[in-house]
Amino acid sequence: MSAVQQFTKGRIHDVTSRPLRKFLDERGWLTELFRSDELEPEIMPVMSYISMTQPGVARGPHEHVEQTDYFCFLGPSNFKVYLWDTRPGSPSFGVKQVFYAGADAPAMVVVAPGVVHAYRNIGNENGIVFNAPNRLYAGQGKSETVDEIRHEELTDSPFQLD
Question: How far, in Å, CA of 155 to CA of 41, rounded?
Answer without folding.
Answer: 38
